Amino acid sequence: MTVKTRFAPSPTGFLHVGGARTALYSWLYARHQKGEFVLRIEDTDLERSTQEAIDAILEGMNWLGLNWNEGPYYQTQRFDRYNALIDQLLAEGKAYKCYCSRERLDALREQQMAAGEKPRYDGACRHGEHEHAADAPCVIRFKNPADGTVVFDDHVRGRIETGNDQLDDLIIRRTDGAPTYNFCVVVDDWDMAITHVVRGEDHINNTPRQINIYNALGAPVPEFAHVSMILGDDGAKLSKRHGAVSVMQYRDDGYLPQALLNYLVRLGWSNGDQEIFSLEEMIELFSLDAIGKSASAFNTDKLLWLNQHYIKTLPATEVAEHLQWHMQDQGIDTASGPSLAEVVTLYAERCNTLKELAAQSRYLFEDFAEFEAGAAKKHLRPVAAEPLARVRAKLAELADWQAPAIHAQINAAAAELELGMGKVGMPLRVAVTGIGQSPAIDGVIALLSKEQVLARIDMALGFIEARAQG
Q: CA torsion angle for 195, 201, 202, 203 (degrees, to 10)?
């Protein structure tokens, strides 16, 4: 048997963190079992589903690298299949037409709630005692078994048993002819040969109903794994007020997909005390049975730590591919200037996010018109003129424009003037970068052209002279 999993989001919004974790778990299990992973768009909610949301889901999956073997399938393109099976259930007496009005159902619900009962349909149309016109509006309800129990062994929750007397007759086709979610998902999983369903715990109540539909259709029942919700840092259910809950918002905030995947896999699954996993390790080690039952709390600080780890440890060329997006997003033209891989190598130890890295390295690609006020006031004083001029002369005569040779020239200038490196290096840093903080200044200078560096030192000397005269 080929293991086959699926991720089946509703396109009513972006791909959120909880959905991304479900997709990851499904994807990992399929890859671990050398099986297949299916992407399905469950767009039966015609009023709320949008193309914009579909595009956002696909973008999020692609950014995370969760490639699919089949799909994306769209439920709205399969209505003929669903309706044919609903008609089959009607003909077999496993479903029936229900003519109850909305007013009757609302009154029934209020009456049951007032009596402390669980609201459920009372089966008034189940036995078809009433005559109706052929074209009278009706829904189609699934005839749920009246007795017995539904039992399934969940990979996360263990054995779950539900009495059929707790389940009412589910609507499987609306008055407008549209089939409903709980029916469509069963047919899809059957037709697509899904063997394992990984989804959120909010679907547990749907599962017994769906198992009864599988059985009525004579379809094999897949195995289930219902994962717990993700909580925010404050212990409340993760929501928009916690900040970035859209996967692409993490991209926009400067996170690497490798860091987010590593973080998400640990939100409910573990392999001993290991915190950092390559994708290959995740695939090798992942197991549905190792997913914990408890809700997981999202910890932004830990994600930030992981992100910094991946910025430092991934090949610089790989990080540079993601950095390019942030350069463009911040309007930084990288056509002229150092390679982004060199920039990553220089900055990896200093930045937690790619957004931060792009902003801090702007001066490597753009000249600046003025110096940061605080840094200039502190370091571009008249006393700095001679050290800057001496370094400029040393750099001007340098043929080997590499960091070690640059470093030697800066040291030589400081030695000749009998000054500590701080009194030479800090004015030089502000002169070359325009700001007060940067990586090692010899590494920075090596990524700029000699002409750029000399021009910026000249600009700083002019600033000092004007300040002295002013």
A: 20
